[in-house]
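Technical annex, item 7. During the second reporting period the consortium partners agreed on a shared format for inverse folding records so that results from different sites could be compared directly. Each record opens with the tokenized structure and is followed by the designed sequence. A conforming record, contributed by the partner at site C, is shown below for reference.
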């Protein structure tokens, strides 16, 4: 049986590193197993879902290289959810309840004050037809709860090992709201059955849901698929990232200049036994993915790691790939230039500053005018690949300066900066005319 997984985001916000990690783990697992990946837009909540967010989800996944084999909108499948609901009602597993939110709240408070767990008491199960009719006559509409069996539901979790949920400790979940809206729980199971999903992979915040959903699979006459619940992300300080996720959207990260492969390598490897290194491609990442490498402890999301991986990814970009991107920034100064500067970039866009060192204007930093004048006198006529070493040894002989005392004043005069790419490779790119002007202290 070939693997088929799904990513089911709600188009009620932007994708952030938390839900993209779920998408990625699904995708990596599927691709590693030669399986397929379904994108299922969880837009049953028509009031909160927007086309703009839906488009954003597609754009972000595409940018990250997480392509899908099938795609669905849950909002187009209400008929199927209605059929499933009818079956559950006929079997007595879905029952109408008429309590208002206030009434439920009051009951919960009483339970808590008595030291009891705040579980729904199933009062609605004993309503007579006359009582139901009276509520309806009052204008109340029912919400519908799924009657749990109240048992230990167990499964072998790919990420957590043996897992169990006691559904006796849970309230019967509401599957349909009084306004007729299907809450996520039932549509998700109906779709997982209809689409023949083999594995449900999602964050560990869904473990309790899984207990109820396995009962719903069974109630609908289907076997439950495999499950993996991945550990949640925590920040560098160890605190849960959930509150900060809103500020970690993928579209913002794209705007900040992060490479997609840096993001996928980072999210795919944190919390695993793999070294934190950038992968050659997201397909390679899939080939190396295994749940057995994933620990149960939270995955530490540290921006410093992402920055390191991003620099690694930029350093690995060959000229052919860089060329159109350089052209788009109007800084395609050729292959030698790219190969000379790329090792000094943290983000691709930093190349603009590197190009400025070549094309100017650079404001030279000269502390010792006599030293700069002596260096200017000795500047070779031909500025080729060997010029730097011949020139600096001549300057050393003449002035007695050596080491940092020799190289730093030259770098500062010629680039205006204390750090930067290899000077031997830079000076032929800068060219003799600008070198002369800069050694004279002129902005050029
Ligand atoms: N839309 C749900 C969520 O984002 C999907 C959960 C699931 O994968 O079953 O939480």
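Designed sequence (site C submission):
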């Amino acid at each position: 049986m070939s693997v088929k997984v799904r990513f089911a985001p709600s188009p009620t916000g932007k994708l952030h590193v938390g839900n993209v990690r779920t998408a990625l783990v699904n995708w990596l697992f599927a691709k590693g197993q030669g399986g397929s990946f379904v994108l299922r837009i969880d837009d049953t909540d028509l009031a909160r879902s927007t086309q703009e967010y839906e488009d954003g989800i597609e754009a972000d996944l595409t940018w990250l290289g997480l392509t899908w084999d099938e795609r669905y909108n849950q909002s187009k499948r209400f008929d199927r959810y209605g059929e499933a609901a009818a079956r559950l009602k006929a079997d007595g597993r879905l029952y109408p309840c008429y309590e208002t939110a206030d009434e439920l709240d009051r009951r919960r408070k009483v339970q808590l004050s008595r030291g009891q767990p705040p579980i729904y008491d199933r009062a609605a199960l004993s309503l007579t037809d006359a009582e139901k009719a009276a509520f309806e006559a009052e204008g109340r509409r029912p919400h519908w709860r799924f009657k749990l069996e109240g048992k230990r539901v167990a499964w072998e979790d790919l990420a957590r090992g043996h897992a169990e949920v006691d559904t006796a400790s849970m309230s019967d979940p509401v599957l349909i709201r009084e306004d007729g809206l299907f809450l996520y729980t039932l549509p998700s199971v109906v779709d997982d059955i209809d689409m023949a999903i083999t594995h449900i992979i999602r964050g560990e915040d869904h473990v309790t849901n899984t207990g109820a959903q396995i009962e719903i699979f069974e109630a609908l006459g289907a076997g439950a698929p495999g499950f993996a619940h991945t550990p949640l992300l925590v920040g560098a300080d160890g605190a849960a990232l959930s509150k900060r996720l809103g500020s970690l959207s993928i579209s913002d990260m794209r705007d900040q200049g992060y490479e997609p492969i840096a993001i996928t390598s980072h999210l795919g490897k944190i919390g695993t036994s793999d070294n934190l290194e950038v992968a050659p491609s997201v397909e390679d990442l899939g080939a190396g993915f295994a749940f057995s490498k994933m620990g149960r402890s939270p995955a530490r999301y540290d921006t410093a790691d992402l920055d390191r991986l991003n620099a690694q990814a930029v350093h690995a970009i060959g000229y052919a790939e860089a060329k159109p991107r350089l052209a788009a920034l109007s800084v395609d100064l050729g292959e030698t230039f790219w190969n000379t500067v790329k090792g000094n970039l943290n983000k691709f866009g930093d190349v603009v500053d590197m190009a400025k060192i070549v094309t100017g204007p650079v404001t030279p930093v000269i502390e010792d005018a006599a030293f700069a004048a002596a260096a200017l006198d000795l500047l070779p006529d031909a500025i080729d690949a060997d010029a730097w070493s011949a020139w600096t040894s001549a300057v050393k002989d003449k002035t007695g300066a050596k080491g940092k005392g020799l190289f730093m004043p030259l770098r500062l005069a010629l680039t205006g900066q204390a750090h930067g790419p290899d000077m031997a490779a830079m000076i032929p790119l800068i060219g003799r005319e600008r070198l002369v002007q800069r050694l004279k202290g002129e902005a050029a």
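The mean pLDDT is 96. The chain has 19 helices and twelve strands. All partners now use this format for quarterly exchanges.
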